[in-house]
TrEMBL record:
The lineage of its organism: Eukaryota, Sar, Alveolata, Dinophyceae, Suessiales. This is Ornithine cyclodeaminase. GO terms for cellular component: cytoplasm. It comes from the Eukaryota. Belongs to the ornithine cyclodeaminase/mu-crystallin family. InterPro entries: NAD(P)-bd_dom_sf, ODC_Mu_crystall, ODC_N.
């Protein structure tokens, strides 16, 4: 007996299947982190491919992640890649797809041809999970470093966490990109004010919540702001070897250092660089899901928290499953 042909979903269909209110996504991704840290999730080692312009194509990089939640119905293999030169071609710099398989039979159920969008979204949602659970009470000043797709998604969703009167600071190596980003956010609304600042250091000096979303290979932020105020720093960019956004003093000065996956973050995340520099000890790093499950304290006066997010396959499993359930229900 032959199995049914896998369902192939386009980017438009995928985006239509996502909930307008992203709070349910935050809940699901947060629960995914908790289950991952509790040992209920199996993930494979992350595979990285880097491409250079000397070959037949343009320079880019690719990340392959896979895993499953025990007792759930599906397992997922995700391929996500970044191609910086695509912008000049009028294409998204993010590309990729998610392949969803049955845990019962191993059959391929669906191909989510998302062009990397679900990876970008679940990455941004992870930053919001941290902001919702860990940001200082009453904190109203957020900053994003970077102006790409993930930074855009963070900036679009963060006002729902911070509430009325929230202010956004934007830092980018390209002043033109920063001003375009500000204009777009002002047109969308949600922020009380949106402002370009000189650089990442200027953003870090003023922000209650700092989110870095760049492919930097050298530190952009060298220190936390004054200790008596406290700050939440969420680093999203160091998702493969050689990438780094935070200097050693940022992690050294934090009261708490969290990692989405200790294995990954101590291998190629911000934590790995800080340990190599002698800024922190590996055993001082706490896994995010454990901290959330234990009701860990949020940022307070004199207490800063740094979160190293390298991206975990459980996020892909969660978001792919949500999308596929909606699409399959619509087909029924």
């Amino acid at each position: 007996m032959s199995s049914a042909a896998p369902f192939v979903a386009s980017l438009d269909a995928i985006q239509s299947a996502l909930p307008q209110d992203k709070s349910s996504l935050l809940d699901a991704i947060s629960e995914g982190f908790v289950r991952f840290s509790a040992g209920d999730v199996t993930v494979a080692n992350v595979s990285h491919l880097k491409f250079d312009a000397r070959g037949s194509g343009e320079a880019g990089d690719c990340c392959i992640k896979s895993g499953y939640v025990r007792g759930a119905g599906r397992w997922v293999v995700k391929v996500a890649s970044g191609w910086p030169n695509n912008a000049a071609l009028g294409m998204s710099t993010s590309q990729g797809a998610m392949f969803v398989f049955s845990q019962r039979t191993g059959a391929l159920e669906a191909v989510l041809a998302d062009s990397g969008y679900l990876t970008d979204l679940r990455t941004a949602v992870a930053a919001l999970v941290c902001a919702r659970a860990l940001a200082p009470e009453g904190g109203k000043v957020a900053a994003v470093v970077g102006t790409g797709v993930v930074a855009t998604l963070v900036a679009q969703m963060l006002p729902s966490i911070l509430g009325l009167g929230a202010r956004l600071l934007v830092a980018s190596r390209s002043p033109e990109a920063a001003h375009r980003f500000v204009s777009a956010r002002e047109a969308e609304g949600g922020w009380s004010t949106v402002e370009v600042v000189a650089d990442a250091a200027a953003a870090a000096a003023r922000a209650d919540i700092l989110v870095t979303c760049t492919p930097a290979t050298a530190p952009l932020v060298s220190a936390l702001r004054e200790a008596q105020v406290g700050q939440l720093v969420v680093a999203l960019g160091a998702d493969s070897a050689g990438k780094r956004e935070l200097g050693p003093d940022v992690l050294r000065g934090a009261a708490v250092v969290l990692a989405d996956s200790k294995t990954q973050c101590l291998s190629f995340g911000e934590c790995s660089s800080a340990v190599a520099d002698g800024a922190i000890q590996a055993d001082a790093v706490i896994e995010l899901g454990t901290y959330l499950n234990d009701g860990g304290a949020r940022v307070a006066a004199g207490r800063s928290i740094v979160v190293d997010l390298t991206g975990v396959a459980v996020q892909d499993v969660v978001i792919a499953s949500i999308v596929l359930e909606v699409l399959q229900s619509a087909k029924a």
